[in-house]
Amino acid sequence: MADVARRAGVSTSTVSRAVRGVSTVSPEARSRVERAAQELSFALSRSASSLVTGKTGRVAVLTPGLPRAPWFLGTALTGLAEGLRDADLDLLAYVITDASERAAFFDRLPARRNADAVMVMSFILTEEERERLDELDVPLVFVSQHAPGRASVYIDDAAGARRGMRYLLNLGHRRIAHLQSAAVDSFVWSAYDRLVGYREALEEAGLPYDDALVVRAELNRPGIREAIGALLSEPQMPTAIFVEADDMAFEVMSVLRSCGIDVPGQISVLGFDDHPLAEMLDLSTVAQSAWHTGHTAAGLVSSILTDPDSDPARHIALPTHLIPRGSTAPPPADRLAEAAAEGPPPPGPTGDGA
Amino acid sequence: MADVARRAGVSTSTVSRAVRGVSTVSPEARSRVERAAQELSFALSRSASSLVTGKTGRVAVLTPGLPRAPWFLGTALTGLAEGLRDADLDLLAYVITDASERAAFFDRLPARRNADAVMVMSFILTEEERERLDELDVPLVFVSQHAPGRASVYIDDAAGARRGMRYLLNLGHRRIAHLQSAAVDSFVWSAYDRLVGYREALEEAGLPYDDALVVRAELNRPGIREAIGALLSEPQMPTAIFVEADDMAFEVMSVLRSCGIDVPGQISVLGFDDHPLAEMLDLSTVAQSAWHTGHTAAGLVSSILTDPDSDPARHIALPTHLIPRGSTAPPPADRLAEAAAEGPPPPGPTGDGA
DNA sequence: CTGAAAGCGCTTACAG
DNA sequence: CTGAAAGCGCTTACAG
C-alpha cells in the first residue's frame, strides 16, 4: 500500500480511503490511486484490515459431509455462496463428517476470531454444542433447523406435506401411506414436520390416522423393499404412498414396478424435494428450493452483520409448491370403491363392500 | 495474548512459542501458558499471525455451482475438506455459477493475499484465466482437469471407459453404443477421455468404430428419448449402451423400459460414476471415487505447501473399478447371432444371419 | 479533503 | 530457554 501511495503521490490514509470507496476523497486523488493500484495490481490484505477493524469479512459455514444429502446440501450451499458473495463476504467451510470431527470442532472452535458469523447447516446440535457456539460471540444463523432464540431459515415442511397430501386427497385417494427414512442422524426436523403435515391433512379431510400406514425404511434397497412389503401385506393396500424424500421415492417406484405393480395405475407415488432426477424419472413431488434456503440465509446473516437494528433471532420459513408429474393419478376405480366403503367420509356416491 | 502472558507470568514471546508448540519452551512455562490460555479461552488471531508470517492458513477452492454435478462435486468437496482439515488448512470456497461471476472473479481475484494456494475444481479454464491465476503467485492445483505444467488430480477416465467396455465385450456384446451429454460447459475432459477409452476398447477387441453408435443427448428426458430413438432406428439396434454418466443412465433405463424394451434382457445399460442411486436402481457402472479425488488433491496441496522439494506440477491419475449390477447381462442369443454374423471377429461358434 | 501517528495482535531475529 | 523490541499492512481518530 505504501508503494501505491508513493506512486499516486498521496498518503496511505488516502489510499486506504480510496480503495474502500470512502466518500471523502477528491476525484483526482481517487483516480490517481486507482491508476497506481491497477499498475501495481494492488489488493488489500484482509489480514491487516481485519487486525484493525476486528472484522474478517468471512462467514464460517458448518456443514455435514455433502454425501449425506448431496442434492439438498450442495444446492443450498450454492445459494448460500452466491448470497454471501453478493454481500461481499467470504465463505469459510467447515465440513464435518463424523463424530470425532464434530467433537474436535466444538472443542477447538477453529472458527473463533476467524469469521464474523457462523452458519449451521442441517445440523441437529446438542444444547452443549449450541452453548459452545455462543461463546464465539458472533451472530449465529441456523439453516434447516428451528433454533429457538437464534436466527434460522427453513422450509415449511409441515405446510409442504399438507399441500402434497391435499393433492392426493383431491385425486380421490383415501388410503395414503407415509414412508419415512429410518436414518436418525440427519434431517430429523424435516421428517418430523412432514409427518405433522401428513396427519394434519388427514384430519382436515376427516380421515382417520392409521399407524400401519406410516412406515420407516433404511435408506437402501432391502430396507425400502421391506417397508413396501409391510404396506402391501396390509388387509387393504394403500392407493398412494407419500414418501419423505425424492431419493427414497425413486427407489419406491422401482421396487413397486419390479414386483409388477403399476405406478401410478395401482399405486401413486409422491415425493418431496424436487430432486433433479425427479423430472427425469417423472416423479410427482413437493418442491422445496434448497438454493433459496441457502440464499435467504446468506441475506439474513448479511443483514444481521450490517444492520444493527435487525432481529438476531429472526425466523424465516420458506414455502413449497406441488409439482404434479406422471407418478400420481386417481386411484383405480375398484379400489376407490373399496376404500370408500371403509373410510369414514364417503366422498362420492359409491358404496358397498366386504 | 498479553492477558495470557500476564496470567502465566511470562512474555508474549513465550506464549506465542508455547501455543504454536515450538520446542524451545520449558515444560513449566508451557504448562503455565496452557493453563492460562484455557482459563481465558484464548485462541490465536489468524489475522495477526498472517500479517507477520505472510501465511494465511487457508486454501481457496474455486468450484462451479454444485447443482451442475451435485454428486461429484459435493463428494469431491467433502474429501477435499477432510484432507485440508487434516493438514490444518481452512477452506475458503469461491462458488462460481455463471459467466458474469466468473468474469468478476478473474477480474478482481478476491483470493489474492487471502489464501496460500488455489485449487480449481472441474473448471475448464481459458489460457487467460490460467495466466491470471498465476499472477496470484501461489501454488495452483487442478482437480478433474489435466493442466499441463500445473499440479493436477483426476480420474483416469480413459482407463475406466476401457474397463467398462471390456466388461460388456466379455459378456458377449458386439454392438455397443456410447451416449454422451451434449452439455458443453462442464466435464469436457471426462467426456473426451471416456470416448477415447470407448474407442480403444473397440480396437483392442478388433471391432470397428461406428459413428452411428455414438450419440449425444441434452440432459433432459426429451433429449435422452431422442438419442435413444436414434439408436433404436439403426438398421441393427445396439445390444448395450455405455452411458457417460450415471444420472443419464438412470434416464436411459427409464426411457427404454417405458417403451417396452427389457433392460438388461434386450439392451444392457452401463453407467459411469457409481452415483448413490446406482445401487438403488441396480445400475451397473464404472465407479470413480469423487471423495478420493478431493482428498488426494488436498494432500497434494498440503505437500506442495509444506515440502519445498515436492513437485509443483505433479499429476495424479486415480483409478476406477467396475461394479456389475442388474442392468447388464449377456446379449439376447438371437441378436448375438446376428451381430456375430456381421461383426468382424466371430467370438464363438455361433453363426448365420440375415 | 488530507496526512502524521498510533495501534490492531501477533512473530521473529536478536541478545542474553 | 526467555524477553524486549521491531515490524507485518492496514485503519482511524485527530488535527489541519
Write structural notes for this entry.
Chains A, B: InterPro entries: HTH_LacI (IPR000843), LacI/GalR-like_sensor (IPR046335), Lambda_DNA-bd_dom_sf (IPR010982), Peripla_BP_I (IPR028082). Chains A, B: Pfam families: LacI, Peripla_BP_3. Chains A, B: Residues 343-354 have a biased composition (Pro residues). Chains A, B: One of its GO terms (molecular function) is DNA-binding transcription factor activity. Chains A, B: Residues 1-53 form the HTH lacI-type domain. The structure is a homodimer of 354-residue chains. Chain A has 354 residues and is an alpha/beta fold. Chain A has three domains: 1-37, no CATH class; 58-155 and 292-319, Rossmann fold (3-Layer(aba) Sandwich), CATH 3.40.50; 157-287 and 322-342, Rossmann fold. Chain A is built from 14 helices and twelve strands. Chain A has helices at residues 2-8, 12-19, 27-39, 46-53, 70-86, 99-108, 127-135, 157-171, 188-204, 221-232, 246-258, 276-280, 290-306, 333-342, and strands at residues 58-64, 90-96, 117-121, 140-143, 151-155, 176-181, 214-217, 240-243, 268-273, 284-288, 315-318, 320-323. Chain A has a six-stranded parallel β-sheet with strand order 2-1-3-4-5-11. Chains A and B meet through helix 4, helix 5, strand 2, helix 11 and helix 12 of A and helix 4, helix 5, strand 2, helix 11 and helix 12 of B. The structure holds a DNA duplex (16 and 16 nucleotides).
